[in-house]
Task: structure prediction
Amino acid sequence: MTTSAPNQTARRLFASIAPTYERWARVLSLGQDGRWRRVMVDGLSLASGCKILDVAAGTGSISRRLQDMGHQVTAVDLSGEMLGLHPGPERVQARAEMLPFGANTFDALTLGYLLRYVDDPVASMIELARVVKPGGRLGMVEFGLPGGLWKGPWAIYAGAILPTAGRIISPGWYEVGRFLRRSIEDFHTRYPDPAFVWREAGLIDVKVRRMSLGGGVVMWASKP
Result:
């Protein structure tokens, strides 16, 4: 599988933390990560029994909620280590930029923390939308960049506390802790309007909800 530099970064970061990913993601996000994912899934407002593609599925936190709601979920992730811990019956190791599915295959698509790990977010969203049926729904969870009074505390937490906590947990989590602040700031500097990428990809009815004082961004849209 040919991968770009951002893809390679993702594979390196997640390989060693896969077994403990969900536990420490919950702790280090102060319990907010699971909340953002629940809000995103519930906000899709899907009919029962949909066929859904969960991209950057990781170890399955979004997939499990969708499956519990009665949907048929196919999980895609670049990381074999993460995907190996995913409980779903349909798992595919692939790049989001080159999905091995036909056009208009899925009723809906979800993605979590993906766009910071691709070379071209707009091109990647076009590819993701390609496999969704017309009228289908897309939902995303991503880290936000707080502003105003919360920018300073966030910078301290992301820039100092996360790496320190990561060092205590494991070398892999230390590397993630050192990486996150720069990654989040760089992405939001390039795309200060989180809806821009989705609109450029041709999606409609784009809705953005900032959560946890701006630390999380949840988005929804439809394919025309």
